[in-house]
Fold these 2 entries.
Entry 1:
Amino acid sequence: DTEVTQTPKHLVMGMTNKKSLKCEQHMGHRAMYWYKQKAKKPPELMFVYSYEKLSINESVPSRFSPECPNSSLLNLHLHALQPEDSALYLCASSQDRGDTEAFFGQGTRLTVV
Amino acid sequence: GESVGLHLPTLSVQEGDNSIINCAYSNSASDYFIWYKQESGKGPQFIIDIRSNMDKRQGQRVTVLLNKTVKHLSLQIAATQPGDSAVYFCAENSGGADGLTFGKGTHLIIQP
Protein backbone atom coordinates (compact mmCIF):
# COMPACT_ATOMS: atom_id res chain seq x y z
CA ASP A 1 0.00 0.00 0.00
CA THR A 2 1.69 3.17 -1.22
CA GLU A 3 -1.28 5.44 -0.75
CA VAL A 4 -1.83 8.54 1.26
CA THR A 5 -5.56 8.96 1.78
CA GLN A 6 -7.11 12.34 2.43
CA THR A 7 -10.67 13.11 3.44
CA PRO A 8 -12.80 14.86 2.51
CA LYS A 9 -11.96 15.43 -1.15
CA HIS A 10 -13.93 18.66 -1.21
CA LEU A 11 -14.99 20.97 1.60
CA VAL A 12 -16.96 24.19 1.63
CA MET A 13 -17.02 26.04 4.92
CA GLY A 14 -18.08 29.39 6.27
CA MET A 15 -15.71 31.75 8.00
CA THR A 16 -17.18 30.93 11.40
CA ASN A 17 -17.11 27.16 10.97
CA LYS A 18 -14.74 24.64 12.52
CA LYS A 19 -13.73 21.71 10.36
CA SER A 20 -10.95 19.16 10.16
CA LEU A 21 -8.99 17.65 7.30
CA LYS A 22 -7.77 14.10 7.72
CA CYS A 23 -4.84 12.19 6.29
CA GLU A 24 -3.85 8.56 6.69
CA GLN A 25 -0.94 6.42 5.53
CA HIS A 26 -0.04 2.81 6.28
CA MET A 27 3.46 2.70 4.81
CA GLY A 28 5.16 3.00 8.18
CA HIS A 29 6.46 6.44 7.29
CA ARG A 30 7.71 8.49 10.22
CA ALA A 31 7.39 11.94 8.64
CA MET A 32 4.15 13.58 7.60
CA TYR A 33 3.54 16.96 6.04
CA TRP A 34 0.85 19.48 5.24
CA TYR A 35 1.21 21.62 2.12
CA LYS A 36 -1.05 24.34 0.76
CA GLN A 37 -1.41 24.77 -3.00
CA LYS A 38 -3.17 27.70 -4.64
CA ALA A 39 -4.36 27.43 -8.24
CA LYS A 40 -1.51 27.34 -10.79
CA LYS A 41 1.06 27.66 -7.99
CA PRO A 42 3.51 25.20 -6.44
CA PRO A 43 2.77 23.51 -3.11
CA GLU A 44 3.96 25.46 -0.07
CA LEU A 45 5.04 23.71 3.10
CA MET A 46 2.93 24.40 6.20
CA PHE A 47 3.83 21.78 8.81
CA VAL A 48 6.20 18.88 9.29
CA TYR A 49 5.73 16.08 11.79
CA SER A 50 8.55 13.70 12.55
CA TYR A 51 7.92 10.73 14.85
CA GLU A 52 4.56 12.28 15.75
CA LYS A 53 6.14 15.50 16.96
CA LEU A 54 5.73 18.83 15.23
CA SER A 55 9.16 19.77 13.97
CA ILE A 56 8.46 22.60 11.57
CA ASN A 57 5.75 25.23 11.50
CA GLU A 58 6.34 27.55 8.57
CA SER A 59 4.80 30.61 10.24
CA VAL A 60 1.31 29.44 9.49
CA PRO A 61 -1.58 31.43 11.07
CA SER A 62 -3.03 29.93 14.24
CA ARG A 63 -6.38 29.40 12.53
CA PHE A 64 -4.65 26.27 11.13
CA SER A 65 -3.91 23.74 13.87
CA PRO A 66 -2.20 20.44 13.04
CA GLU A 67 -2.48 17.28 15.07
CA CYS A 68 -0.76 13.91 14.77
CA PRO A 69 -2.75 11.40 16.89
CA ASN A 70 -0.50 8.49 15.89
CA SER A 71 2.11 7.53 13.34
CA SER A 72 -0.48 6.82 10.65
CA LEU A 73 -2.78 9.80 11.05
CA LEU A 74 -2.45 13.51 10.50
CA ASN A 75 -5.20 16.07 10.98
CA LEU A 76 -5.48 19.74 10.15
CA HIS A 77 -8.04 21.60 12.26
CA LEU A 78 -9.52 24.70 10.69
CA HIS A 79 -11.20 27.55 12.51
CA ALA A 80 -12.21 31.08 11.52
CA LEU A 81 -10.68 30.80 8.07
CA GLN A 82 -10.65 33.57 5.50
CA PRO A 83 -11.67 33.36 1.83
CA GLU A 84 -7.99 33.65 0.85
CA ASP A 85 -7.39 30.34 2.62
CA SER A 86 -9.29 28.60 -0.15
CA ALA A 87 -6.82 26.20 -1.74
CA LEU A 88 -5.88 22.57 -2.26
CA TYR A 89 -4.47 21.16 0.97
CA LEU A 90 -2.07 18.31 0.38
CA CYS A 91 -0.87 15.77 2.87
CA ALA A 92 2.35 13.88 2.26
CA SER A 93 4.49 11.33 4.02
CA SER A 94 8.04 10.06 3.70
CA GLN A 95 10.08 7.34 5.36
CA ASP A 96 11.99 9.91 7.36
CA ARG A 97 12.03 13.68 7.62
CA GLY A 98 14.05 15.16 4.81
CA ASP A 99 13.64 12.27 2.38
CA THR A 100 13.42 13.43 -1.22
CA GLU A 101 10.67 10.97 -2.11
CA ALA A 102 7.45 12.05 -0.51
CA PHE A 103 4.13 10.39 -1.20
CA PHE A 104 1.27 12.82 -1.64
CA GLY A 105 -2.44 12.37 -1.21
CA GLN A 106 -4.92 13.72 -3.73
CA GLY A 107 -5.63 16.69 -1.53
CA THR A 108 -8.69 18.36 -0.06
CA ARG A 109 -10.11 21.16 -2.18
CA LEU A 110 -11.17 23.75 0.40
CA THR A 111 -13.45 26.67 -0.36
CA VAL A 112 -14.07 29.27 2.33
CA VAL A 113 -17.20 31.34 1.82
CA GLY B 1 12.00 35.26 -3.18
CA GLU B 2 11.82 31.63 -4.27
CA SER B 3 14.97 29.59 -4.32
CA VAL B 4 13.86 27.41 -7.23
CA GLY B 5 11.98 28.43 -10.34
CA LEU B 6 11.24 27.53 -13.93
CA HIS B 7 11.75 29.34 -17.21
CA LEU B 8 8.58 28.36 -19.10
CA PRO B 9 5.05 28.00 -17.77
CA THR B 10 3.89 25.82 -20.70
CA LEU B 11 5.70 23.44 -23.03
CA SER B 12 3.98 21.72 -25.93
CA VAL B 13 5.61 18.75 -27.67
CA GLN B 14 4.56 16.15 -30.20
CA GLU B 15 3.89 12.65 -28.96
CA GLY B 16 7.02 10.57 -29.42
CA ASP B 17 9.36 13.55 -29.30
CA ASN B 18 11.77 14.23 -26.48
CA SER B 19 11.01 17.06 -24.08
CA ILE B 20 13.26 19.15 -21.88
CA ILE B 21 11.95 21.03 -18.87
CA ASN B 22 14.23 23.56 -17.23
CA CYS B 23 14.61 24.97 -13.77
CA ALA B 24 16.85 27.60 -12.22
CA TYR B 25 17.74 27.60 -8.56
CA SER B 26 19.51 30.02 -6.27
CA ASN B 27 20.20 28.04 -3.10
CA SER B 28 23.64 26.50 -3.58
CA ALA B 29 23.37 24.82 -0.19
CA SER B 30 20.65 22.39 -1.27
CA ASP B 31 21.67 18.75 -0.90
CA TYR B 32 19.22 17.31 -3.37
CA PHE B 33 17.23 18.50 -6.34
CA ILE B 34 14.08 16.65 -7.22
CA TRP B 35 11.48 16.52 -9.98
CA TYR B 36 7.82 15.92 -9.27
CA LYS B 37 4.93 15.40 -11.68
CA GLN B 38 1.40 16.55 -10.87
CA GLU B 39 -1.45 15.33 -13.02
CA SER B 40 -4.78 17.10 -12.98
CA GLY B 41 -6.74 16.34 -9.81
CA LYS B 42 -3.87 14.51 -8.15
CA GLY B 43 -1.10 15.24 -5.71
CA PRO B 44 2.52 15.54 -6.86
CA GLN B 45 4.33 12.31 -7.66
CA PHE B 46 8.08 11.77 -7.27
CA ILE B 47 9.94 11.21 -10.54
CA ILE B 48 13.65 11.38 -9.87
CA ASP B 49 16.19 13.12 -7.67
CA ILE B 50 19.82 14.07 -8.00
CA ARG B 51 22.33 14.74 -5.28
CA SER B 52 24.16 18.03 -5.47
CA ASN B 53 27.52 16.32 -6.03
CA MET B 54 26.30 14.66 -9.22
CA ASP B 55 25.70 16.16 -12.66
CA LYS B 56 23.55 13.52 -14.30
CA ARG B 57 21.19 10.78 -13.28
CA GLN B 58 19.05 8.53 -15.43
CA GLY B 59 15.80 6.78 -14.75
CA GLN B 60 13.27 5.07 -16.91
CA ARG B 61 12.77 7.42 -19.92
CA VAL B 62 13.91 10.36 -17.79
CA THR B 63 17.26 12.03 -17.27
CA VAL B 64 18.02 14.81 -14.83
CA LEU B 65 20.96 17.12 -15.45
CA LEU B 66 22.45 19.44 -12.86
CA ASN B 67 24.74 22.31 -13.80
CA LYS B 68 26.00 23.84 -10.59
CA THR B 69 28.07 26.46 -12.39
CA VAL B 70 24.97 28.21 -13.71
CA LYS B 71 22.58 26.80 -11.07
CA HIS B 72 20.45 25.05 -13.64
CA LEU B 73 18.47 21.83 -13.44
CA SER B 74 16.71 20.08 -16.29
CA LEU B 75 14.47 17.08 -16.80
CA GLN B 76 14.59 15.27 -20.10
CA ILE B 77 11.74 12.94 -20.99
CA ALA B 78 12.37 10.60 -23.90
CA ALA B 79 9.68 9.54 -26.37
CA THR B 80 6.88 11.44 -24.68
CA GLN B 81 3.55 9.72 -24.25
CA PRO B 82 0.06 11.12 -23.59
CA GLY B 83 0.40 10.06 -19.97
CA ASP B 84 3.31 12.48 -19.59
CA SER B 85 0.90 15.43 -19.78
CA ALA B 86 1.11 17.10 -16.39
CA VAL B 87 2.65 19.99 -14.48
CA TYR B 88 6.28 19.35 -13.62
CA PHE B 89 7.84 20.93 -10.56
CA CYS B 90 11.46 21.05 -9.62
CA ALA B 91 12.08 21.05 -5.90
CA GLU B 92 14.95 21.19 -3.48
CA ASN B 93 15.69 19.55 -0.18
CA SER B 94 18.01 21.44 2.08
CA GLY B 95 19.65 18.57 3.93
CA GLY B 96 16.89 17.04 5.96
CA ALA B 97 15.78 19.93 8.09
CA ASP B 98 12.72 20.90 6.12
CA GLY B 99 10.17 19.55 3.73
CA LEU B 100 10.43 20.27 0.04
CA THR B 101 10.63 23.72 -1.54
CA PHE B 102 8.95 23.68 -4.93
CA GLY B 103 9.57 25.83 -8.01
CA LYS B 104 6.84 27.38 -10.11
CA GLY B 105 6.00 24.47 -12.42
CA THR B 106 5.87 23.84 -16.16
CA HIS B 107 2.74 22.50 -17.79
CA LEU B 108 3.78 19.87 -20.35
CA ILE B 109 1.24 19.32 -23.11
CA ILE B 110 1.60 16.32 -25.40
CA GLN B 111 0.17 16.90 -28.88
CA PRO B 112 -1.11 13.80 -30.72
Entry 2:
Amino acid sequence: SQQGEEDPQALSIQEGENATMNCSYKTSINNLQWYRQNSGRGLVHLILIRSNEREKHSGRLRVTLDTSKKSSSLLITASRAADTASYFCATYGNNNDMRFGAGTRLTVKP
Amino acid sequence: DGGITQSPKYLFRKEGQNVTLSCEQNLNHDAMYWYRQDPGQGLRLIYYSQIVNDFQKGDIAEGYSVSREKKESFPLTVTSAQKNPTAFYLCASSIGAGAAGEQFFGPGTRLTVL
Protein backbone atom coordinates (compact mmCIF):
# COMPACT_ATOMS: atom_id res chain seq x y z
CA SER A 1 0.00 0.00 0.00
CA GLN A 2 1.09 3.59 -0.52
CA GLN A 3 2.87 5.14 2.40
CA GLY A 4 2.16 8.80 1.83
CA GLU A 5 -1.06 10.67 1.34
CA GLU A 6 -1.03 14.12 -0.19
CA ASP A 7 -3.48 16.90 0.47
CA PRO A 8 -5.02 18.54 -1.47
CA GLN A 9 -5.43 16.25 -4.48
CA ALA A 10 -5.59 19.29 -6.75
CA LEU A 11 -4.64 22.93 -6.29
CA SER A 12 -5.20 25.85 -8.65
CA ILE A 13 -3.58 29.24 -8.01
CA GLN A 14 -2.56 32.42 -9.82
CA GLU A 15 0.99 33.13 -10.84
CA GLY A 16 2.85 34.84 -8.02
CA GLU A 17 0.88 33.16 -5.25
CA ASN A 18 2.32 30.56 -2.89
CA ALA A 19 1.36 26.89 -3.12
CA THR A 20 1.33 24.60 -0.10
CA MET A 21 1.00 20.83 -0.31
CA ASN A 22 0.82 18.46 2.61
CA CYS A 23 1.85 14.84 3.02
CA SER A 24 1.12 12.34 5.77
CA TYR A 25 2.72 8.94 6.20
CA LYS A 26 2.29 5.91 8.40
CA THR A 27 5.54 4.28 9.48
CA SER A 28 9.02 5.31 10.57
CA ILE A 29 11.23 6.74 7.87
CA ASN A 30 14.86 7.38 7.06
CA ASN A 31 14.02 10.49 5.08
CA LEU A 32 11.20 12.08 3.12
CA GLN A 33 11.55 13.36 -0.42
CA TRP A 34 9.49 15.46 -2.79
CA TYR A 35 9.33 14.84 -6.52
CA ARG A 36 7.75 16.60 -9.45
CA GLN A 37 6.18 14.99 -12.52
CA ASN A 38 5.20 16.70 -15.72
CA SER A 39 2.38 14.94 -17.55
CA GLY A 40 3.44 11.62 -19.04
CA ARG A 41 7.06 11.95 -17.95
CA GLY A 42 9.34 10.48 -15.34
CA LEU A 43 9.69 12.03 -11.91
CA VAL A 44 12.33 14.56 -10.98
CA HIS A 45 13.76 14.83 -7.48
CA LEU A 46 13.21 18.23 -5.83
CA ILE A 47 14.31 18.11 -2.21
CA LEU A 48 15.08 15.67 0.59
CA ILE A 49 14.64 16.12 4.31
CA ARG A 50 16.12 13.67 6.80
CA SER A 51 14.16 12.34 9.75
CA ASN A 52 16.25 14.43 12.19
CA GLU A 53 15.63 17.68 10.29
CA ARG A 54 12.63 19.96 10.71
CA GLU A 55 12.95 22.40 7.82
CA LYS A 56 14.87 22.68 4.59
CA HIS A 57 15.06 25.28 1.83
CA SER A 58 16.06 25.07 -1.80
CA GLY A 59 15.44 28.14 -3.96
CA ARG A 60 11.70 28.79 -3.93
CA LEU A 61 11.01 25.51 -2.14
CA ARG A 62 10.57 25.07 1.58
CA VAL A 63 9.93 21.69 3.17
CA THR A 64 8.99 20.98 6.75
CA LEU A 65 8.88 17.67 8.54
CA ASP A 66 7.08 16.79 11.78
CA THR A 67 7.95 13.21 12.69
CA SER A 68 5.69 13.28 15.76
CA LYS A 69 2.70 13.90 13.48
CA LYS A 70 4.18 11.89 10.59
CA SER A 71 3.58 14.77 8.23
CA SER A 72 5.44 17.04 5.85
CA SER A 73 4.61 20.11 3.81
CA LEU A 74 6.03 21.56 0.62
CA LEU A 75 5.76 25.29 0.02
CA ILE A 76 6.46 26.79 -3.39
CA THR A 77 6.78 30.55 -3.17
CA ALA A 78 6.09 33.07 -5.93
CA SER A 79 4.71 30.36 -8.22
CA ARG A 80 5.14 30.47 -11.99
CA ALA A 81 3.14 28.90 -14.80
CA ALA A 82 6.09 26.54 -15.35
CA ASP A 83 5.50 25.09 -11.86
CA THR A 84 2.34 23.43 -13.18
CA ALA A 85 2.87 19.70 -12.56
CA SER A 86 2.05 16.90 -10.14
CA TYR A 87 4.01 16.81 -6.90
CA PHE A 88 4.62 13.64 -4.92
CA CYS A 89 6.03 12.99 -1.49
CA ALA A 90 7.97 9.78 -0.99
CA THR A 91 9.19 8.12 2.16
CA TYR A 92 12.50 6.28 2.18
CA GLY A 93 12.45 3.41 4.65
CA ASN A 94 15.10 1.55 6.54
CA ASN A 95 14.96 -1.32 4.03
CA ASN A 96 15.99 1.03 1.21
CA ASP A 97 12.43 0.89 -0.10
CA MET A 98 10.58 3.95 -1.35
CA ARG A 99 6.85 4.58 -1.08
CA PHE A 100 5.04 7.36 -2.94
CA GLY A 101 1.82 9.15 -2.21
CA ALA A 102 -0.99 9.80 -4.67
CA GLY A 103 0.25 13.29 -5.46
CA THR A 104 -1.06 16.84 -5.67
CA ARG A 105 -1.85 18.23 -9.10
CA LEU A 106 -0.83 21.89 -9.14
CA THR A 107 -2.08 24.31 -11.78
CA VAL A 108 -0.58 27.80 -11.88
CA LYS A 109 -2.58 30.19 -14.05
CA PRO A 110 -0.68 32.97 -15.82
CA ASP B 1 16.20 11.74 -17.55
CA GLY B 2 19.31 11.22 -15.47
CA GLY B 3 21.11 8.45 -17.33
CA ILE B 4 18.27 5.95 -17.23
CA THR B 5 16.67 4.68 -20.37
CA GLN B 6 13.48 2.71 -20.76
CA SER B 7 12.27 1.01 -23.88
CA PRO B 8 9.99 0.91 -25.63
CA LYS B 9 8.13 4.16 -24.96
CA TYR B 10 4.82 2.61 -26.00
CA LEU B 11 4.00 -1.09 -25.90
CA PHE B 12 0.89 -2.95 -26.96
CA ARG B 13 0.14 -6.43 -25.78
CA LYS B 14 -2.53 -8.94 -26.57
CA GLU B 15 -4.20 -10.66 -23.67
CA GLY B 16 -2.36 -13.80 -22.62
CA GLN B 17 1.05 -12.61 -23.79
CA ASN B 18 4.09 -11.94 -21.65
CA VAL B 19 6.01 -8.73 -22.36
CA THR B 20 9.35 -7.47 -21.09
CA LEU B 21 10.08 -3.83 -20.36
CA SER B 22 13.68 -2.73 -20.52
CA CYS B 23 15.46 -0.47 -18.02
CA GLU B 24 19.14 0.45 -18.30
CA GLN B 25 21.20 2.89 -16.24
CA ASN B 26 24.73 4.20 -16.67
CA LEU B 27 24.94 5.93 -13.30
CA ASN B 28 26.76 3.06 -11.58
CA HIS B 29 23.90 2.84 -9.09
CA ASP B 30 23.45 -0.28 -7.00
CA ALA B 31 19.70 0.04 -6.40
CA MET B 32 16.97 -0.12 -9.02
CA TYR B 33 13.18 0.08 -8.76
CA TRP B 34 10.05 -0.59 -10.80
CA TYR B 35 6.82 1.32 -10.26
CA ARG B 36 3.40 1.23 -11.79
CA GLN B 37 1.33 4.40 -12.20
CA ASP B 38 -2.35 4.40 -13.10
CA PRO B 39 -4.08 7.52 -14.47
CA GLY B 40 -4.29 10.27 -11.88
CA GLN B 41 -2.65 8.06 -9.27
CA GLY B 42 0.63 7.87 -7.44
CA LEU B 43 3.38 5.31 -7.92
CA ARG B 44 3.09 1.79 -6.57
CA LEU B 45 6.23 -0.24 -5.98
CA ILE B 46 6.41 -3.51 -7.93
CA TYR B 47 9.93 -4.81 -7.31
CA TYR B 48 13.25 -3.38 -6.22
CA SER B 49 16.82 -4.56 -6.22
CA GLN B 50 19.57 -3.36 -3.94
CA ILE B 51 22.38 -5.29 -5.57
CA VAL B 52 23.09 -7.58 -8.51
CA ASN B 53 21.43 -11.01 -8.30
CA ASP B 54 19.10 -9.89 -5.52
CA PHE B 55 15.63 -8.35 -5.56
CA GLN B 56 12.63 -7.91 -3.29
CA LYS B 57 8.89 -7.78 -3.88
CA GLY B 58 7.15 -4.47 -3.50
CA ASP B 59 3.48 -3.89 -2.81
CA ILE B 60 2.05 -5.21 -6.09
CA ALA B 61 4.48 -7.92 -7.29
CA GLU B 62 1.82 -10.46 -8.33
CA GLY B 63 1.83 -11.02 -12.08
CA TYR B 64 5.27 -9.48 -12.54
CA SER B 65 8.81 -10.86 -12.55
CA VAL B 66 12.27 -9.28 -12.65
CA SER B 67 15.91 -10.22 -12.95
CA ARG B 68 19.11 -8.41 -12.00
CA GLU B 69 21.96 -10.20 -13.75
CA LYS B 70 23.88 -7.02 -14.46
CA LYS B 71 24.29 -3.87 -12.39
CA GLU B 72 23.10 -1.61 -15.17
CA SER B 73 20.00 -3.59 -16.19
CA PHE B 74 16.73 -4.42 -14.41
CA PRO B 75 14.14 -5.76 -16.87
CA LEU B 76 10.51 -6.21 -15.84
CA THR B 77 8.33 -8.94 -17.31
CA VAL B 78 4.59 -8.46 -17.22
CA THR B 79 3.13 -11.96 -17.31
CA SER B 80 -0.26 -13.18 -18.42
CA ALA B 81 -1.10 -13.60 -14.72
CA GLN B 82 -1.32 -9.82 -14.36
CA LYS B 83 -5.02 -9.26 -14.98
CA ASN B 84 -4.98 -5.50 -15.46
CA PRO B 85 -1.59 -4.55 -16.86
CA THR B 86 -2.54 -1.40 -18.77
CA ALA B 87 -0.58 1.35 -17.01
CA PHE B 88 2.46 3.62 -17.12
CA TYR B 89 5.60 1.86 -15.88
CA LEU B 90 8.50 3.79 -14.39
CA CYS B 91 11.98 2.56 -13.62
CA ALA B 92 14.29 4.34 -11.20
CA SER B 93 17.73 3.92 -9.70
CA SER B 94 19.57 5.22 -6.67
CA ILE B 95 23.09 4.96 -5.28
CA GLY B 96 22.10 2.19 -2.89
CA ALA B 97 22.28 1.15 0.74
CA GLY B 98 23.77 3.71 3.06
CA ALA B 99 22.94 6.64 0.80
CA ALA B 100 20.00 9.01 1.08
CA GLY B 101 17.90 7.26 -1.53
CA GLU B 102 17.38 10.05 -4.05
CA GLN B 103 15.96 8.33 -7.11
CA PHE B 104 16.58 9.06 -10.75
CA PHE B 105 13.74 8.12 -13.08
CA GLY B 106 13.54 6.96 -16.65
CA PRO B 107 10.99 8.41 -19.09
CA GLY B 108 8.56 5.52 -18.62
CA THR B 109 6.87 2.88 -20.77
CA ARG B 110 3.16 3.07 -21.46
CA LEU B 111 1.73 -0.45 -21.74
CA THR B 112 -1.67 -1.03 -23.30
CA VAL B 113 -3.43 -4.38 -23.45
CA LEU B 114 -5.51 -4.77 -26.57
